[in-house]
Design a protein that fits this description.
The complex is a heterodimer. Chain A is of the alpha/beta class. Helices cover about 25% and strands about 30% of the residues of chain A. Chain A has 6 helices and 15 strands. In chain B, helix 3 packs across helix 4 and helix 5 runs parallel beside helix 8. Classes of the chains: A alpha/beta, B alpha/beta. Chains A and B meet through helix 3, helix 4, strand 9, strand 10 and strand 11 of A and helix 3, helix 4, strand 7, strand 9 and strand 10 of B.
Amino acid sequence: MKVLVAVKRVVDYNVKVRVKSDGTGVDIANVKMSMNPFDEIAVEEAVRLKEKGAVTEVIAVSCGVTQCQETLRTAMAIGADRAILVETPADLELQPLAVAKLLKALVDKEQPGLVILGKQAIDDDCNQTGQMLAALADLPQATFASKVEFVDGSVNVTREVDGGLETLKLSTPAVVTTDLRLNEPRYVTLPNIMKAKKKPLEVIKPADLGVDVTPRLKTLKVNEPPKRGAGVKVPDVATLVAKLKNEAKVI
Amino acid sequence: MAVLVIAEHEHGTLKGATLNTVTAASQCGGDVHVLIAGSNASGAAQAAAQIAGVAKVLHADDARLAEQLAEDVAAQVLAIAGNYSHILFPATAHGKNVSPRVAAKLDVAQISDVTKVISADTFERPIYAGNAIATVQSADKVKVITVRTTGFDAAASGGSAAVESVAAVAGNGKSSFVGREVTKSDRPELTAAKIIVSGGRAMGSSEKFNEVLTPLADKLGAALGASRAAVDAGYAPNDWQVGQTGKIVAPQLYVACGISGAIQHLAGMKDSKVIVAINKDPEAPIFSVADYGLEADLFAAVPELIKAL
């Protein structure tokens, strides 16, 4: 069985982005880019399933600019067998619905038994693509996974939900999106980075898949959030309690 | 055209997030209808009918909807979606699970985590963990939206809408419910609590977390929260996580104990009315958003605080 894993190239999670002064977006020139952390967990899970013998091939997919090839090389350094980049121009804002359509076309072509994606990208914070893919491909879904297990041809997924955990049983093919506690991704080693350079990476265009990727939402402006100023330091607990009672009046 | 709110409910009672979503819906224009899709959920339907500003409640009752699987709830929403200009879900684990399925089937974009309705087609939403606010406009025929509940007040009661039954429809039958482990708690729900006591990695162990923070939460009638570091370390259950990818909260008082204040944590709590930080590291970023910062060892300060309250 094949597993398809979708990965996104995003601003590294340690970078605090700055809003451009003209309000057109955030400044991502010369900032460090990395694989979206949830997608790294997705790749790790797929590779672990392969190591356990539950799957035979792990295919990493990314949609975006040429530089996403680096992200795909990272996925292959973790252990993906091959990669596909659906390349789009740098001035195109690729939105979740378009990505879901591209992935749906690849699912039709590759026929994977499982698709694993991160639950959300840490740039646009949308949390949509996996669910949209599942809907378009008419597949069952399990989002926010903390455990994935193959049982008798089905996949059992434990999900992090409000109030605790929930376990679902999905027929395959299925779509799973990862939450933080599914696994801890391995560190990529130099030999594996070297090996990844030799693995096949196919580059195609949205038109090759017959998908229209025109954005549906128009970003009118991007602003700084209202600043929350630092308050005061209090010397001791008694002062803190007095301030909360008399000044803030919250207790 | 009318606006549809997908209610969140459990054991026949309506969940609070529905009320904030109704407020957002009422700002989109048009009558507000509420869909209750569930099994034995007539209690929730009655409660929805009493929300001020709700014109009609649609109630789909079927055993297959009992576990609220995304495939089933989405199919139910799609069955009636044709009548609406806007479809709104609360941006909770459940809403986020179902909503994109509905948007994709309608071939429209979803607008996630809306914090402000500017007009019927223009909305504000946070991006980059709340470090930027984007204003987005949708040209789609239907606007599918998830609502960040902290961005909107809860709708008041005092309505008397009619409850109408709608035919239940089935999902694709490709998924089934196996089981649920519910974290039992007598405390207020995290996203609805007026006061939250939250612990970070500095708590050191789940025993210490409970031993030190539980009495403070008891004293304040507070919900308990945790940073991602504390959850990852196993000090607190996953559904206590406050942050960009966990729960977004905005209580009257947020007490952060031993939390350094990583960007992604601040994204989940910086809209709190009053923030108290107790941390022994004077450089901790949490102090940059705290109204009252106490630079102290929490293992000494928290017991002292309990005594002083």
